[in-house]
Amino acid sequence: MSTIAQNLQAVDHTIIAAANACGRSRNDVQLLAVSKTFPPEAVVEAIGAGQRAFGENYLQEALDKQRAVAAAVPGVHIEWHFIGPIQSNKTRPIAANFAWVHTVGRLKIAQRLSEQRPADMSPLNICLQVNISGESSKSGITWDELPELARAVALLPNLRLRGLMAIPEPELDLARQRAPFARLRAMLEALREDGIAMDTLSMGMSADMTAAVAEGATIVRVGSAIFGSRTYE
Ligand SMILES: *Cc1c(COP(=O)(O)O)cnc(C)c1O
């Protein structure tokens, strides 16, 4: 077995253990393999091990990789997720080349993605990025702004609002890792009680996926635990 295949298996076991520990099913958690900075060959290797959903942060790198992967494994359906910061002049290729966008934090970006989503594609799945640690340097919106944005995004015709995403500050301790994930889960539940339909919590990375699954993550975004450490950002 290749290293990537072994790593995928190890991550799968981590998710299973975390899910079992809190009475959840492995099938309720989707593994998004974050392939940023890694070459198409690494993605193809992961595909060979059965992985189908990949996350990318940088648009041009992602488009080049998508082309190379499609040529290497023609006919295999890959689900690409955009998880990086979004500049408003880059929304058109994002709308045309991804199934999901996890990092929407402004209505203007959502409106452009909806307008630019090609008519022959299904609605673009959207997560709103929440600034869960409350730091001004971090991207994402605050709880105060969230209900209004969620309501507006839910009305856009070519988008499907799926849920919330966050990247908390790194913490080593499990209890401290769980706290911001619990807050994000509470926000999702509050919005749902308000009548906004959502089914997704995109939270948890290599270092904190166990805490995220314990708090209800439905998508964990895992890079280095699958592909190894990144040599540039
Ligand atoms: C890079 C990245 C990840 C994966 O991080 P790892 O620590 O390598 O698992 C997940 N989510 C986002 C938004 C990222 O930018």
Taken together, the total number of domains comes to: 1
Major sheet summary line: 8 strands, parallel
Strand content: 15-25%
Q: Which ligands appear in the coordinates?
A: pyridoxal-5'-phosphate
Q: Describe the global form.
A: globular
Structural class: alpha/beta
CATH topology heading? TIM Barrel
By CATH, the architecture is named: Alpha-Beta Barrel
Order of helices and strands: HEHEHEHEHEHEHEHEH
Roughly what percent helix? 40-55%
Classified by CATH, the class is Alpha Beta
CATH homologous superfamily designation: Alanine racemase
Distance between the termini: 28 Å
The low-confidence parts are none
Mean pLDDT: 96
Alpha carbon gyration radius = 17 Å
- Strand line-up across the major sheet: 7-6-5-4-3-2-1-8
GO molecular function: pyridoxal phosphate binding
Family: Belongs to the pyridoxal phosphate-binding protein YggS/PROSC family.
Cofactor: pyridoxal 5'-phosphate
Keywords: Pyridoxal phosphate
